[in-house]
Design brief:
By secondary structure, the chain is an alpha+beta fold. Helix content is 51%, strand content 11%. The protein has nine helices and four strands; from the N terminus they run E-H-H-H-H-H-H-E-H-E-H-H-E. It has a four-stranded antiparallel sheet, with helices on both faces. Helix 5 crosses helix 6 and helix 7 packs across helix 9. The radius of gyration is 19 Å and the shape is elongated. 34% of the residues are buried.
Length: 206
């Protein structure tokens, strides 16, 4: 079974602060402009809804208002998807072609490539966590992770140090072409974050 990453550039602190913000205006805008998307999600998850899971609209409201959340852990995915919706609407989608789709331990393979280039401040396997802002309940899917602005800057510093060493020695670490593509896609994400003070990366694995 294949998986995929979606990657967003945004102000991490401001985005996480939307959870529990009671932002009626944002909720109204989403309801008015993305009703078809909400309805489509409900149709896709109709079996879960029949078993008592909240609708996409109900989950979105719960996320923005900090609750109430269903006590049934089988319903928690809806809050994860609602948080993903907030990120997709407030952030900038970044190229994920090296990660959509992917299979097996691909993220760990890419992480090994990052480490060969001296990058340890971030890893793509960070996006296999479920790092949702409190008080959102833990869920199996979507998985989520964050690279802060500071982590992105540090990772770029690590890459530049390795690049200087490679330029001086003329010897680059051996990497498979597809791993090179994925690693430099990650470096592209880092560079986007570095150009915008306070911006970082929030990723979702599906």
């Amino acid at each position: 079974m294949s998986s995929g990453l979606e990657i967003y550039l945004l102000d991490v602190t401001a985005t996480q602060a939307l959870v529990g913000s009671r932002n009626d205006q944002l909720l109204t805008v989403i309801r008015e402009n993305y009703r078809a998307d909400l309805d489509r999600d409900d149709d896709y998850h109709r079996r879960a809804l029949a078993k008592g899971a909240p609708t996409a609209d109900e989950a979105l409201q719960a996320v923005l208002f900090g609750g109430p959340f269903s006590a049934d852990r089988e319903h928690a995915f809806q809050y994860g998807y609602a948080y993903h919706r907030l990120c997709s609407l407030t952030g900038a989608f970044l190229d994920n072609s090296s990660f959509m789709p992917h299979r097996g331990d691909w993220l760990h393979v890419v992480d090994a490539g990052l480490r060969k280039l001296g990058i340890t401040a971030v890893s793509t396997s960070d996006f296999e966590d479920t790092d949702l802002p409190a008080p959102l309940p833990w869920c199996y899917t979507p998985m989520s992770g964050t690279w802060t602005h500071e982590q992105c800057l540090r990772a770029l510093e690590q890459f530049e140090a390795t690049k200087q060493a490679v330029d001086a020695s003329g010897q680059a670490p051996p990497l498979e072409p597809e791993v090179v593509d994925a690693v430099f896609q990650c470096i592209g994400w880092l560079r986007h974050a570095a150009t915008r003070p306070g911006s970082g990366i929030i990723g979702f694995k599906f």
